[in-house]
Amino acid sequence: MSESLYNGLSTIPIIASATNAFVLRTFFNQFLGGQTTEECLPKIEELRKNRIGTLLGYNIEAELDGSSKDPQLIATQTQHVLSSIDTQSMLAKKFWPDTSATGGDNRSWVRIKVTGLLPHPVALYNGSQAILKARAEKGLDKDVPHPGLPHDGDWEAALTGESVTKTDREQLVSLRATLEAIASKARDNNVRVVIDAEQTWYQPVVDSLTDELMQKYNTLDRPATCIASFQAYLRRYPQLLDQQIRRADEKGYKLLFKQVRGAYIVTEAERWKKEGREGLGPVWSTKAETDASFNYGIEKTLATVTDQVQNTGHSRLSGVFASHNSISVDLAIQLLEKHSLAKRTADGKLLLSKEAAGSIAFAQLYGMKDDLTNKITGTIETEGGFPLVVKSMSYGDLKECLPFLARRATENKAVLEGRGGAAAERIRLGREIRRRLLPWSS
């Protein structure tokens, strides 16, 4: 059901309640945890019984056109993020109280979206333009595809650039204060925070903030807090990953990251063309190139973890392979065994080593690709049942979540069309929705 259709039906008194009930019972219940953290609890606990962790996030969907939001809404959304941390902290103490053997991790995480935490996203754009200009003046990133790599001095450039207005500066300073408050609370409660990636015209500021937060909250002397998000569909990704690993080693902090393929391929191409830019855009030209980029990330990550474990007995790197692609997942599992990070047991399953347990994770969206999730949990295990897979679970008010539901349908069109082995998933989703709508039919 589209957002416009829902809005139209919701204005008709007799039909409004039935429309709400239909959406809540079917699409909403399938893809989201609930309207509040309390409603999410039974689903999170059920997942944990099956050795699956959660990445909980209040549904903050910034408008892709960069339109402004009510400042009061930002304050409310920030409070929801803090509430998510409280919920995950409570559950972590119940599910995995001793994190000493898993690098400080408990697989009870929270997700934030930077564009949803400030009223005017144009501040991110102007700050990012200032960063790109400052890098160019320093001769940096000459051979790196747009939007380049994070460097020292980026945050200062975002605040002092000629294109940055006083209002922009105030917005950015306030944004950083908000992120600091979130990261500080998360660290105090030992909850990891995933900072979502954004469109490339916002990403330089997001990169600089993530870099600053990782240096502060991912120190080597205590459990790390901040998880960056890297998009493999960007042509810069192989260089970005290499640089980030080196940067963490040089500056002495733990690099934690979630690797995704990417969600904004259409708008990236449209923006590049609209601005009249020449040459290759920021996104790989073909799916095969994106797949190769993602798989490079798997290979580089596991090779680095292996090297660090062999040399020091533990890893300073933690990678989350967020993918619905079974080929990439199979590659990761094969490489875990190849690098002796996992060994075959008598029953034929793989057992992940204690040293690698807190350094490797897979992730899928809640309500999707359960067949792939089950394949992972059925193939490889960890000592004590520590979750190797995390489900990304969003929650929020029904009306606020409609853009999220619409984006799920758009991003996962391949599932609906049955390409790439997804026909079984489509059938499973249809059966589950029918069961929830017509319980007597099962």
From TrEMBL:
EC number(s) on file: 1.5.5.2
Domain Proline dehydrogenase per the UniProt entry, residue ranges: 41-415
A UniProt-annotated Pfam family: Pro_dh
Cofactors demanded by this protein: FAD
Catalytic activities: L-proline + a quinone = (S)-1-pyrroline-5-carboxylate + a quinol + H(+)
Presence of keyword Flavoprotein: yes
UniProt cross-references to InterPro entries, sorted A to Z: FAD-linked_oxidoreductase-like, Proline_DH_dom, Proline_oxidase
UniProt keyword terms in alphabetical order: FAD, Flavoprotein, Oxidoreductase, Proline metabolism
Enzyme class: oxidoreductase
Protein family per UniProt: Belongs to the proline oxidase family.
General function of this protein: Converts proline to delta-1-pyrroline-5-carboxylate.
Protein name, as recorded: Proline dehydrogenase
Organism: Lithohypha guttulata
Recorded name of the encoding gene: PUT1_2
